[in-house]
Structures are given as C-alpha cells and as structure tokens.
Specification:
Structural class: mainly beta
Radius of gyration: 55 Å
Number of strands: 42
Shape: rod-shaped
Distance between the termini: 145 Å
C-alpha cells in the first residue's frame, strides 16, 4: 500500500495490517488485541524512542535514537549499547565509556531516591566491582533449605558468619575443602580454630617476613623460619640486647650495663601494677611416693642476693638453703658443702704461691677415732680402759692424738713400737711428735713415724752425736700411761 492511512477517530482492523514503511505513533494511536501489527523497520514512539528488530528474532528498545535494550533470540537481555550485546549472560549490563558506572540501583520509599541512596552495584574506572549501601545498614546472605542467614557484613565493616556452630573460611586448594584436611579457619562453639592441611604448617608474617610459625608437629617457633624448631617452644628471635624472652610485666632497660651477653632470658622484678619485687624461677614436682607436691625456687631479691629455697611440701613454705650475697659470699643456711667426686674440693689457686707449690686444692677433710696396737716390744696389747685416740685429716696432712692407761702382758727386750695409724705415712716421710709417759717408764722420749707404714717408733736422744737409742719394750711400765701427739703426711 503506497498511500497513507489517516483518521481522526478510532479504526478497527479485522485482519493483518502490513506496513512497508514505518508505523509512527502519530499514525497509530491504538491497536486492538486481536490484530497483528507488522512493521518493516520498527516503531517510533514519541520523539526519539523506538521499538525495532535489529536481527532475526531479536527485539530492541531505544531512546534518543540510540539502542538501550536488546532481547536476543535465545532470551538473553543486554542493557547497554548494541555493540555489547554479545549474549554472554542471561542479563548483561554494559556501557562503552571507560568510566565508573552504576550497573544496578535499588531504591525504595525508605531510602529516598537521590544519587546517594539505596543499593548501588557497579564497576569503577579501574574495573573493580563495587557494592554501595548508603543507608547505614547491613548486607546479609541467606541460603539452605530453611533460608537462614549465613553471612553478614555490618554497616561498621564487621564480617559475621553466625549461621551455624561450625563455620569455616577455607583458603587455597590444599587438602579437601570442607574437611579438616584443608587450610581453613573455623568456629567450634566458643573456640576459634586455625587448621592447616595434612603435613602443612601455620605461618605468621609481617610485611612478607616470617615472625612466627606452628609446625605440623605442633612446635611453636618464633623468629627466622630458615631454622627448624627443636622444641615445643623455640624462640629464635632476640632483641637488641640478645634476649630471646622476657618474663615480667614491664620496664626492660635497653643498656649494655644492665644486660649480659650470655643471657637469653630476662626475668623482670616489676609487675603490671608497678610493684617492685624480686625475680626468679619456681619449681613444683610430684614427690617420689606420689603423695604430695614438693616445691622450691631460685630467686634474686631486691638486695641482689641469689636465694635457693626448697623442701616445700604441699601447703608448707619452702625454706632458704643457700644464699649468694651481692658481695659474692656463699652462705649455707641448712646443710653442708659436699663434693660428690673424689679429688675435687676448694681451689685456692687465686692466692699467692710459695716456691715449690705443687697443689692448691683442698680436696679432703675427715675426723674420727683410731685404735693403736703394739707392733713390737713384747706387750700383747694396750690397756684400752679409758682409751682416747682421735685423728683429723686435712688434705694430705694427718693429726693424731692418743691416750691409753698402759699395756697388757709383759714387755721384752725388742724395740718398742706401736701400729694402727689411720693412714700410712708417705715414703721417707718421717715426722716426729711428742709423747708423755707415766710412772715407772723411761722418760725423755719422742716418737716418730716410720716410712710408708702405720707404725710409730719410740726414741730418746743419743748420748753421743753419732748414734741414737730406741727403747726396749721392757723399759715401759705396765701401768704407765702413754699420751702422744703427732702430725704427718700421707698419700691416701
């Protein structure tokens, strides 16, 4: 039909209206629902608005003579320039300009309808996606058959996943997602769990540098990760003073004069409330019988004394056993200084030495009783009634003292000698001592040790310078007491 149909009133068509040109709004004001309008190029609505079919089985809407929306033959919807209608999704929102734009704005009566109201979803100029909620409210996500909330982002930026007792954030592809053999964080009731996959470790870094790790064996390592933790807690890092760990609330002093290059642990004697105390280490163990706890401590008090305490049992307080004063004096409060290895003792090598010195170690002390006997002189023994025989050994020197009331049996013409010294004298180590002899016996004698034996010989000065005399056994009186004192050296 080459002519134009015009009318001032309503028109009703019972069949198809075939328009070879453009059917404009000015030409048609209504179309009955039982009729079909067929347009070759499209329908212009008003000024600049149009409905067209740019391709087979496609529908496009336009404004200002530009396509704004297209429904493709497969049902995909593109809102944006026609060049972007590539059917990449069921709904595509696009623009050609390289600038930020809101792809979707959701507003309602409670939000108002300005540019800074409601929910806006889009892409910025850096091609980053954004969600903007201007109403100072939360984002929340629901899922599951009960459609309950699983995740919420609050208006203050908190991320809350409170939909279940066991909520997990799985990171990476290690292990099996959703199981304990995966890298994840999760809530377990009131507990927060950090989990690595089998054989992995948990590592903490600061600006790309490792500061702490928990190995797969559960060892905690603080510091350089190039070393392997060798204990359940291994502190590798240290501060500027070489200290690996500080125990105590506060006020560590960074000064070489306060700290010691060989120290690894610092114990601070000031608590969180600024109260000054001593510092130390406490020990608590179960006793051997497994009936109670025993406890003790090594401390430094505020006067710089080291104090060792133990023997605490249950609720009973341990007592001081040893103290090293600030002046270096060692004080033993209850107990003895005992050397458990033979040949060790007190070393005096810091003192001056005389020419010929060959030992400055005091390595032995003992005291006790000894029993004298008759070596020669005919007597069968000593009268032990009232016997007193003492000795003291200091280092290699022995001091002996003896009193007995006389002899038993009878004396002979053989040289008189006793035996029974607590230690043999050294070889050629003759030592002379004094002797007091009771009534009836020869007077003016002295005694002497014999070389490398436990014997004591009796002598009196010779009447000539070329000889000496040894008294015979029968020159002693049976009831004549003997008192002697002697000092000698031994190799024992």
């Amino acid at each position: 039909m080459a002519s134009v149909i015009r009318g001032s009133g309503a028109s009703t068509l019972g069949g198809a209206l075939d328009v070879q040109g453009v059917l404009t709004y000015e030409d048609v004001t209504s179309v009955d629902s039982i009729g079909i309008i067929t347009a070759r190029s499209g329908i212009n609505v008003g000024t600049g608005a149009s409905i067209s079919s740019p391709d087979t089985n496609e529908l496009a809407l336009g404004t200002n003579n530009v396509e704004r929306l297209r429904i493709a033959s497969g049902g995909d919807v593109n809102i944006g320039p026609s060049a972007n209608a590539n059917g990449h999704g069921l709904l595509t929102l696009s623009q050609s300009a390289s600038a930020a734009f809101n792809a979707l704005v959701i507003q309602q009566g409670n939000t108002a309808f300005t540019a800074t109201d409601g929910l806006q979803i889009g892409i910025d100029a850096g091609v980053n996606a954004y969600f903007k909620l201007y109403e100072n409210r939360d984002f929340y996500f629901t899922t599951g058959t009960s459609n309950t909330e699983k995740l919420r982002i609050t208006s203050t930026g908190q991320l809350q996943a409170t939909g279940a007792a066991d909520v997990r954030l799985t990171l990476g592809s290690g292990g099996t997602a959703g199981t304990n053999d995966s890298v994840h964080m999760r809530a377990d009731g009131a507990n927060l769990l950090f989990m690595n996959a089998s054989g992995g470790l948990t590592k903490f870094e600061s600006n790309g540098t490792e500061t702490l790790r928990i190995t797969s064996a559960g060892f905690v390592q603080i510091g350089d990760g190039s070393f392997n933790a060798e204990a359940p807690l291994h502190v590798i890092s240290q501060n500027s003073q070489g200290i690996n760990a500080i125990f105590g609330a506060k006020d560590f002093i960074v000064s070489n004069n306060y700290n010691y290059p060989d120290a690894n642990i610092a114990l601070q004697g000031r608590d969180i409330g600024n109260n000054d105390t001593g510092a130390g280490i406490q020990f608590t163990v179960r006793n051997t019988a497994d009936t109670n706890w025993v406890h003790g401590a090594i401390t430094m008090d505020q006067s710089s004394n080291y104090i060792f305490k133990n023997s605490g049992l249950g609720n009973y307080v341990g007592t001081e056993k040893l103290r090293i004063t600030s002046g270096g004096e060692v004080q033993i409060a209850n107990g003895n200084l005992k050397f458990s290895t033979a040949g060790t003792g007190i070393d005096f090598s810091a003192t001056g030495q005389a020419t010929g010195m060959d030992n400055e170690l005091l390595d032995d002390y003992e005291e006790g009783n000894w029993t004298p006997g008759v070596q020669s002189g005919g007597w069968s023994g000593i009268n032990s009634s009232g016997l007193t025989a003492k000795y003291v050994k200091i280092g290699s020197q022995v001091f002996v003292q003896c009193y007995f009331a006389g002899f038993t049996g009878s004396g002979s013409g053989n040289t008189m000698a006793l035996n029974g010294l607590p230690f043999n004298s050294i070889s050629t180590g003759y030592s002379a001592g004094s002797v007091d002899i009771g009534k009836g016996s020869q007077k003016g004698m002295y005694i002497r040790t014999e070389s490398d034996t436990d014997r004591i010989g009796f002598y009196y000065p010779s009447e000539s310078s070329s000889s000496r005399r040894s008294p015979q056994g029968n020159s002693f009186y049976i009831d004549g007491y003997i008192i002697l004192h002697l000092s000698y050296f031994t190799d024992s």
